[in-house]
């Protein structure tokens, strides 16, 4: 009787890849990596373009409302020339306009206030209501018939001239235009103002 325990059992044969399988695997990995890159890169690129588009195009604010009517830089006031008292009494008016930043549009944003008055010859003049001393808001004193800053007792005539030594200069007069349907017209009743703020504490009128 033969001893079979000493005979070795042959190892099972290992499966071998068919010819060209390694190359196919590399191609699959490359294709998978490329598709993954596309899936991530395309949305990111589109999002980046959308985010940066306003900056690239340099979109400008639309706040003046008169870019197509010859009133670039002017803001239409919510009063008419006929509503300004003929006796010269000043009228306070809030200045509001639409504004854009790089991504958003804001409607009817308050940007400041002005004093309007009609001179004896019928001309309308307008002053920024900010005191040129330290930036407080100037009031109208009916009893004294003048402009007065309650913060530091700066005083001004109705023509905007300072009457004491506290303010460094007179009130800041602004450019005003009359129009009809947004078109400049000397006989128009619409009032448009070129609203600006100016640096305080200086004798020079420096726009900011």
Characterize the structure shown.
It is elongated, with a radius of gyration of 37 Å. A hairpin with a 2-residue loop joins strand 8 (173-180) and strand 9. Mean pLDDT is 84; it is low at 59-68. It is an alpha+beta fold and 208 residues long. 18% of the residues are buried. It folds into two domains: 20-58; 75-194, Rieske Iron-sulfur Protein (3-layer Sandwich), CATH 2.102.10. It has one helix at 21-57, and strands at 75-80, 91-100, 105-118, 124-128, 139-141, 146-149, 154-156, 173-180, 183-184, 190-194. Strands 1, 2, 3, 4, 8, 9 and 10 form a seven-stranded antiparallel beta sheet that branches. It contains one helix and ten strands; from the N terminus they run αββββββββββ. 18% of the residues lie in helices and 29% in strands.
CATH-derived architecture of the largest domain: 3-layer Sandwich
Q: Indicate the structural class.
A: alpha+beta
Query: In the CATH hierarchy, what is the class of the largest domain?
Result: Mainly Beta
In helices, the fraction of residues equals 10-25%
Question: What's the domain count?
Answer: 2
Number of strands: 10
Order of helical and strand elements: HEEEEEEEEEE
Shape: elongated
Annotation field: number of helices: 1
List keywords for this structure.
2 domains, single chain, Rieske Iron-sulfur Protein, three-stranded antiparallel β-sheet, 18% helix, alpha+beta, 10 strands, 208 residues
Furnish the topology, listing elements before pairings.
Blueprint (H helix, E strand, L loop, with lengths): L20 H37 L17 E6 L10 E10 L4 E14 L5 E5 L10 E3 L4 E4 L4 E3 L16 E8 L2 E2 L5 E5 L14
Antiparallel strand pairs: 1-10, 2-3, 3-4, 4-8, 5-6, 6-7, 8-9, 8-10
């Amino acid at each position: 009787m033969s001893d079979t325990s000493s005979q070795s059992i042959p190892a099972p044969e290992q499966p071998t890849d068919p010819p060209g399988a390694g190359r196919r695997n590399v191609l699959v990995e490359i294709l998978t990596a490329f598709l993954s890159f596309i899936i991530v890169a395309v949305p990111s690129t589109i999002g980046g373009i959308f985010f940066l588009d306003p900056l690239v195009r340099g979109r400008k604010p639309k706040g003046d409302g008169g870019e197509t009517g010859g009133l670039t830089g002017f803001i239409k006031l919510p009063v008419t020339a006929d509503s300004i008292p003929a006796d010269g009494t000043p009228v306070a008016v809030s200045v509001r306009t639409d504004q854009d930043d790089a991504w958003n549009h804001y409607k009817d944003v308050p940007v400041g206030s002005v004093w309007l008055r009609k001179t004896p010859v019928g001309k309308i003049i307008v002053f920024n209501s900010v005191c040129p001393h330290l930036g407080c808001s100037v009031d109208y004193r009916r009893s004294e018939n003048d402009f007065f800053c309650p913060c530091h007792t700066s005083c001004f005539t109705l023509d905007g001239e300072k009457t004491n030594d506290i303010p460094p200069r007179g009130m800041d007069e602004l450019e005003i235009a009359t129009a009809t349907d947004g078109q400049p017209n000397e006989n128009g009743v619409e009032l448009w103002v070129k609203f600006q703020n100016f640096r305080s504490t200086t004798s020079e009128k420096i726009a900011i």
